[in-house]
Amino acid sequence: MFMEHVPRDIKQQEGPTLTKRGPSSTLRAWELGMRLRRARGDLGLTAAAVAKRVGIAPSNFSAIEAGKRRVTASNLAQLTDVYELDDAEREMLESLRVDAEQRNWWHDYAELYSEEFLRFLGLEAGASTVREWAPIYVAGLLQTNEYARATIRAGSPYIKAVDVGPRLETRLARQTLLEEEPRLNMEVNLSEFALRQQVGGPAAICRQLDQLTEVITRDNSTVKVRVVKYTAGAHALTGGPLSLLSFDNVLLPDLIWQETAITGNLIDRVQVIREFKASFENVFESVALDDEDSLALIQQIRHEMEAAA
């Protein structure tokens, strides 16, 4: 599932060591693009007209406004002139541009992943909340080293053995979002199937379920996991895994990350996002077990797996 710096099972069991989460260059580029688009819209200018005026190819200009392409200092100065922005606005946009130029950890894996997945990593790194439907595997941010390695190895027949280590590094690096301030808030609807699927064998599942228990019961945990039992039947989230990313910035809308066995893509369509949010909340509040019963079932399955190991 989620494609993902050192083995950290022991460290995770001891609880997180909180440090400061640095800015995401991906998120800064997106915010910069959104602010430039809004400034252009305020003046009623078309993208084509502005791109021609500042000498940027139309496709590149669209990518800049979408946050998918960086803007140079000289081009940004030209744009702020065109948009007649005041000194405070110019200073803020330049600060965003400098942050967007910074290199984050996921850039080290650019040759391993698609541009879309790298963008997802950058957006996730800047998110405030993730809501995830996990029907097949335990959510990647909650996986042990052992469990993650097993899912990565099984992920595709085309994954080279030499790439398993870097993918594992990626997944474990993502988990620092639960250990750095401000910590990521996470809500997970997790299927009973995912708990019982013997990824890596019964002993590995025992350790994974111990990890789940530790994460959701630690002091001041920002993670809530609710289990959807087999007996729940059909429900509003029936289907493949999905994640909803939300941000502490009114300019940045929610986004969905959808991943299949062979690809993944970001979805920004308002209606799709609205429907997923409603479906997620319905299952989380009315279909899944509550917090206490979910924890009890996780522990029950852990004991069953221990007996089978």
Question: What's the short story on this structure?
Answer:
The chain is an alpha/beta fold. Helix content is 50%, strand content 12%.
What key attributes describe this structure?
Endonuclease, Chain A, six-stranded mixed sheet, 13 helices, alpha/beta, 434 Repressor (Amino-terminal Domain), elongated, two-stranded parallel sheet, 309 residues
Structure explained in plain terms:
This is Helix-turn-helix domain-containing protein. InterPro entries: Cro/C1-type_HTH, DUF5753, Lambda_DNA-bd_dom_sf. With 309 residues, the protein is of the alpha/beta class. The chain is built from 13 helices and eight strands. The chain has two domains: 25-100, 434 Repressor (Amino-terminal Domain) (Orthogonal Bundle), CATH 1.10.260.40; 113-308, 2-Layer Sandwich (Endonuclease, Chain A). The protein has a six-stranded mixed sheet with strand order 5-4-2-6-7-8, sandwiched between helices. The longest helix is centred in the first third of the chain and has 18 residues, at 25-42. It is elongated. The relative contact order is 0.15. Residues 1-14 have low confidence and may be disordered.
The CATH architecture assignment of the largest domain turns out to be 2-Layer Sandwich
In terms of structural class, how would the helical and strand content be classed? alpha/beta
CATH class of the largest domain: Alpha Beta
Kindly report the spatial arrangement of strands forming the biggest sheet. Answer: 5-4-2-6-7-8
Instruction: Report the average pLDDT across residues.
Output: 92
Shape: elongated
Helix content: 40-55%
* Helix/strand order: HEHHHHHHEHHEEHHEEEEHH
Distance between the termini: 25 Å
- Sheet with the most strands, sense and barrel status: 6 strands, mixed
User: Which value, in Å, is the CA radius of gyration?
Assistant: 21 Å
Number of domains: 2
Count of beta strands? 8
Fold-level CATH name of the largest domain = Endonuclease, Chain A
**Individual helix count:** 13
- Unreliable stretches (pLDDT < 50, length at least 5) are 1-14
Assess the beta-strand content as a share of residues: 5-15%
